[in-house]
Hints:
This is CBS domain-containing protein. Keywords: CBS domain. InterPro entries: CBS_dom, CBS_dom_sf, Diverse_CBS-Domain. It holds the Pfam family CBS. By secondary structure, the protein is of the alpha+beta class. It has a single domain, classed as CBS-domain (Roll). Helix content is 43%, strand content 19%. It is built from 6 helices and 5 strands. It has helices spanning 3-6, 20-30, 49-59, 68-71, 85-95, 114-136, and strands at residues 13-15, 34-39, 42-48, 99-104, 107-113. The protein has a 3-stranded mixed sheet with strand order 1-2-3. The chain has a two-stranded antiparallel ribbon with strand order 4-5. The longest helix is centred in the C-terminal third of the chain and has 23 residues, at 114-136.
Amino acid sequence: MLVRDAMTTDVVTAAADASVREAVGRMLRAGVGSVVVTREGNPAGILTETDALKAGYHAERPFGEIPVSKAATDSLVTTSPGTTIRGAVRQMRENDVKKLPVVDGMEIVGMLTMTDVVRAQENLVDEAVRLEERRQGWTSEGKSWGGDDD
C-alpha cells in the first residue's frame, strides 16, 4: 500500500508570520493535530499541538503574541505519494515524528499521520489475505482456480 492510499488530502497550513493562536484555531476548527508552516506558499516547517504547548509554556506569553515561526519545527521531514506505507513508517521512526507532510515537488498534496497508518492497517491485512489466497491458488470463496476439486 502506498502513502497516497492512506494520506489525508485536506492539509491545514499557516503562514510563518501568523500567531500560534491563529494556527491553533485552524487546528481546532479542522480537528487536526498540526499545521504545515508555509513561507511564500512553500512548506517550511510544521507546528504540532505539542510545539504550541511548549511555546506557550516557555515563552510565558499569550499564544496571540508568539509567531508560528518561533514555535514550529523548521526541519520538515516529508514523503512522497508513491512511498510505501512501510517506508513512511520507517521515516517516522527514524526521525521521531508522528506526522509526515506529503509533497510532490514543492507542493503539499497530503498529510500522513500515525492515525492514518493505523486506519490503513485493516486494508493492509485484507490485501495480504488476498495475496496469500492467490499464492495458494484459492479464491476468497474457497474454490480452487485449477487442479482437482475432488
